[in-house]
Amino acid sequence: MTPPDDKSPLILAVAQTRDRESFRLLFLHFAPRVKSYLLHLGMAGQLADELAQETLLMVWRKADRFDPARAGAATWIFTIARNLRIDQLRRGKLPGDYYQEEEFSPSAGEDYLAAERDGQVSQALKALPADQADVVRLSFFEEKPHPVIAAELGIPLGTVKSRLRLAMSRLRTALEDTK
């Protein structure tokens, strides 16, 4: 049985019959969420808006590739957004309107301190329970939104947030002890 908030049937309708009303509903539901996700990742408003629109355009074009047995609608759409963001970053320098690139060259001392801090963070992450470490990895290293993490791990959204809160508290405590 499909959950009532699952948007997979809308994607399937777009794939099968190019149903414009289904696409409109998908757009209304996901465009602001994808934009918010991209803003959360540090993109400027205009670029986040453009990539959100491009994401939904890809949903229209590639709806026939959606497989509800492999991923939920949100997971699939946010993966498209994530990949478009990565492509945008790989293309190199973004237009000046989107962000200002600062010239920054760390000193040798700053490099050393950064490497030492990275080692401490790595050790603190290894000390986390596996379920908390998984949520931290998906949220911060794979940059997935909480609903996507919940879907991937098959746990409630509240559990994702609780595990993140517990993990961050443990990390904070572990890293304060190393000062």
In N-to-C order, the SSE pattern is: HHHHHHHH
The CATH homologous superfamily of the largest domain: RNA polymerase sigma factor, region 2, helix turn helix motif
User: What characterizes the major β-sheet?
Assistant: none
Number of strands: 0
Overall radius of gyration: 19 Å
Shape: globular
Percent strand equals: under 5%
Count the DSSP helices: 8
Q: Overview of this structure, please?
A:
- Helix 2 packs antiparallel against helix 3, helix 5 (108-126) crosses helix 8 and helix 6 (130-141) crosses helix 8 (157-177).
- The protein has eight helices and no strands.
- It folds into two domains: 8-90, Rna Polymerase Sigma Factor, Chain: A; 108-177, Arc Repressor Mutant, subunit A (Orthogonal Bundle).
- Mean pLDDT is 81; it is low at 95-104.
- The protein has 179 residues and is mainly α.
- The longest helix is centred in the first third of the chain and has 21 residues, at 20-40.
- The protein is 71% helix and 0% strand.
Question: Brief description of this entry?
Answer:
71% of the residues lie in helices and 0% in strands. The protein has 179 residues and is mainly alpha-helical.
